[in-house]
Design brief:
Elements (H helix, E strand, L loop, with lengths): L1 E7 L2 H10 L5 E6 L2 H11 L3 E5 L3 H13 L8 E5 L4 H9 L4 E4 L3 H23 L18 E6 L2 E6 L3 E7 L2 E6 L4 E4 L3 H7 L5 E5 L2 E4 L3 E6 L5 E5 L5 E3 L2 H10 L3
Parallel strand pairs: 1-2, 1-3, 2-7, 3-4, 4-5
Antiparallel strand pairs: 6-7, 8-9, 8-12, 9-10, 11-12, 13-14, 14-15
């Protein structure tokens, strides 16, 4: 199925787009915000990008970023905007957008425009399909060793490993806490996290806890065998289990 990334900032328009594009023909992903949308488009190369952003300047800046990047410059893009002026439409088209749709016409024109974009770029996609890194399977030449893509509802959140403060197990799930105070529940065991996160930065201190050592504020010795770690940006503290205390002492010799 063709993958469409919608970079948007309005939950209402998300529902409208869902009602227009048939889910049996397209897989539609919504970015968590504008910044995540640009990161996702660069790393995962969707088949089509739809920009549904209320601010005209942000539309222009986003298109500039997409078309200045070699990897994303060939991805077809459609802009949906409340601004119906000819000047804005020409500015967007000159930046490389493949179509510009006024918001009031999307029920009538969006599906037609999407299908035309895919028809036009079909041969190009066939030539480079083996190089595309899809959302699900991670195939392709890019190594995803610096981030993880998390799905929150129907939105995608681009999370860099360097932004993760800690990971806490919740049975078959786990909770990520990032430096921007975002708490995300994902269906991923702590064992899986250990195999993914870079060992030079992440340390397991308990059977249910992994911390990013770059965010350690201080370590307090509770008694002869146990320690409590205080992390930057969050008030929650975590105890080292006795099993991992020796690892801690080896990692942070005193």
């Amino acid at each position: 199925m063709k993958k469409i990334l919608v970079i948007q900032n309005n939950e209402i328009e998300t529902k409208r787009i869902d009602s227009i594009l048939p889910c049996d023909e397209f897989e539609i992903f919504y970015s968590h915000n504008l910044k995540d949308g640009l990161e996702i488009s660069l790393h995962y190369l969707p088949d089509l990008i739809i920009l549904c952003i209320s601010d005209d300047k942000e539309i222009v800046d986003s298109l500039t970023c997409i078309n200045d990047e070699e990897r994303t410059s060939s991805i077809p893009s459609i802009v949906i905007s409340e601004n119906n002026s000819f000047e804005q439409m020409r500015k967007v088209m000159e930046l490389g957008a493949d179509d510009y749709l006024p918001m009031k016409l999307i029920e009538k024109s969006l599906l037609i425009s999407v299908n035309k974009r895919f028809d036009k770029f079909l041969k190009l996609k066939e030539l480079i399909s083996n190089q595309i890194n899809t959302f699900e399977d991670g195939k392709g030449n890019l190594k995803r060793d610096d981030h993880i893509l998390v799905k929150i509802g129907n939105r995608l959140k681009f999370v860099k490993f360097t932004d993760i403060i800690c990971v806490v197990a919740m049975k078959e799930y786990s909770k990520l806490t990032t430096k921007d105070d975002c708490k995300i529940i994902v269906r991923k065991s702590l064992k899986n996290w250990i195999s993914v996160l870079p060992a030079k930065s992440f340390l397991q201190i308990h059977r249910a806890t992994i911390i990013n050592i770059d965010y350690i504020d201080k370590i307090v010795k509770t008694n002869d065998r146990t320690y409590t770690v205080h992390l930057k940006y969050i008030s929650e503290t975590f105890d080292f289990s006795q099993r991992y205390a020796n690892i801690m002492r080896h990692t942070f010799p005193t």
